[in-house]
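FW: tagging you since you asked about this chain on Friday. Here's the raw sequence from the shared folder, copied in full. Didn't touch anything.
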Amino acid sequence: AVVNEAVEKYHLTEEEIVNNGYRIYTELDQNYQANMQVIYEDTTLFPTAEDGTHAESGSVALEPKTGGVRGVIGRVAGSNKTGFRNFNYATQSKRSPGSTIKPLVVYTPAVEAGWSLNKELDNHTMQYGDYKVDNYAGIKTAPEIPMYQALAESLNLPAVATVKELGIDKAFEAGEKFGLNMSSVDRVLGVALGGGVETNPLQMAQAYAAFANEGLMPEAHFITRIENASGQVIATHKNSQKRVMDKSTADKMTSMMLGTFTNGTGISSSPENYVMAGKTGTTSDYVSAWFTGYTPTLATVVYVGNDDNKSMGPGMTGGAAAAPIWKNYMQAVVDLP
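HL: got it, structure written out here
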């Protein structure tokens, strides 16, 4: 991931880095990284297919105020593809974010439009022209449901109804503000559930950092500076932030995402004695599972999915497949400085 950033952002080549003795200084923290590596060596935490192979995964933990990546893992231990520039699921994958997109393109625009957190949302309309939608496993709690509960339970019907009422343009504008590539996404209501959107843990950690950082989204990065063999600094990262929402909206969104852990899809996923906010995500047929969570000092995202984009099997939701990895990591690092 670090080499990729040096190549893509600072236009260096691998040969230059190796042959010229360049030294790359990063934001990575040895303690955060070591804890993440220990977890990714425990392959029992990852869904296993009938042939015995485990699902792949990537994870990123970054500091919300600076965007500095403290820990990153690009694949599960034991993967047979090794090398200097292995494919990295944390930074290079392109996967649908599932319901982790809802806070970004559905509920942030709703709050910005002045909707109260307890506004009753449509939880029964299933057909919009040719587009049909349903809640996970057919769950229906009531004809209407408060917005904060719709987010906590990750219900699909209220999310689609909200985008329908606000307008698809609002969802796309929000996605772009949060750094998602919306240029090739079909302008349909399915965007409320992540349909057509492709992203990775690094990009999602950067987006969620805005909620933890009072509405300011930092530029996610690994490298602080690069020196040549003589010690001369040839490249330096300059911290930058972009306002994607005001502080009031960020605070309200965090208030709702606390519900993921107290009365939603992430119950029992929070580290003991700590308050967390976040969101689970699952794509159709259990192809991808996500867990995003944050505190004021750390935003961590975990993605889990099969290498061939096949289903991981019934029940492999974000709360089941990704949450245990996320919880184990956060439990280990939450007290680190």
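FW: The chain is about 30% helix and 20% strand.
HL: agreed, and The longest strand covers residues 288-295.
FW: great, closing this out.
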